[in-house]
Amino acid sequence: MNDILTEIPFNEIPGLRTGHAQDNEGITGCTVLLADTDMAAAVDVRGGGPASRETELLSPTASCERIHALLLGGGSAFGLRAAEGVMRYLEERGRGFDTGFAFVPLVCASCLYDLGIGAPGARPDADMGYAACLDTSRNSADCGNVGAGTGCTVGKLGGAATMMKSGLGFYAVRTGEVMVGAVVAVNALGDIFDIETGRQTAGMLSPDGRSFASSERALFRTCAERADNLFTGNTTIGAVVTNACFDKSRLKKIAAMAHNGFARTIRPVHTSADGDSIYALSTGSLRANLDAVGTLAAYVMGKAVNRAVLSARGMAGCPAACDLPF
């Protein structure tokens, strides 16, 4: 697709800035996408166990049309507190929805479960959310063990002994004047596959750690079991961003199509033990074809998933793709 698409840095997409904060000892963190003014937004949740905040604002029937920030974080439901720091940062700068008595920042958030790899008591809090906002001055698109990706792992169907380290990934493209990018924290129950070749790049390891095991095959073997006993410490969360102009009902469709990027790179995905959620954000005024942007959203999301895994470093005895002997 090189004759149609040009890869660009994610932070070239106008209208928002990204920042990160993390606790490398506790192994958790958060990432914030901060709108320069505000942005249209929608969300599509496919996993069975999401941890989220203010997502009802994004319903097509809700009166809210635009939000001011999106937070992605670790810490499971505890990590949602980091959004308080984002609100504090925005309020100090007079940003938010004008109620006539105060400016109320509208901040949506989703968090993933990373309590099992680091210190269980280490979770993103309001101070960490505030620090991530301060970091937006760098407008960083760092990948790997950073921000919401700090405590991410994949391939957890066999438990902690055979899982692998993952992280945060960014990927963006331009076609003509239209830009579409994705950011994702990959914390999946399943295995990871290259979107271009279908080759497995990370996931559940064999007991000796010298090859991949298949999470799908392992799951198939449980079909006759009545109990739902999947390891629940999962959830892949992310966002697609475009400089094209869409309202939140159309962004909802784009977010739904972006889940195809998960389906092409994560197997199994969207299980009851995952909380997989994708936001779609519009920061610009360009007119663009909805289905073309949605299809691009799936592609850049899949590429971001791959980058998250390949950029990660091993931590706490959990190997990353760069550590594999095969």
UniProtKB/TrEMBL annotation:
<dbReference type="GO" id="GO:0004177">
    <property type="term" value="F:aminopeptidase activity"/>
</dbReference>
<dbReference type="Pfam" id="PF03576">
    <property type="entry name" value="Peptidase_S58"/>
</dbReference>
<dbReference type="InterPro" id="IPR005321">
    <property type="entry name" value="Peptidase_S58_DmpA"/>
</dbReference>
<dbReference type="InterPro" id="IPR016117">
    <property type="entry name" value="ArgJ-like_dom_sf"/>
</dbReference>
<protein>
    <submittedName>
        <fullName>P1 family peptidase</fullName>
    </submittedName>
</protein>
<comment type="similarity">
    <text>Belongs to the peptidase S58 family.</text>
</comment>
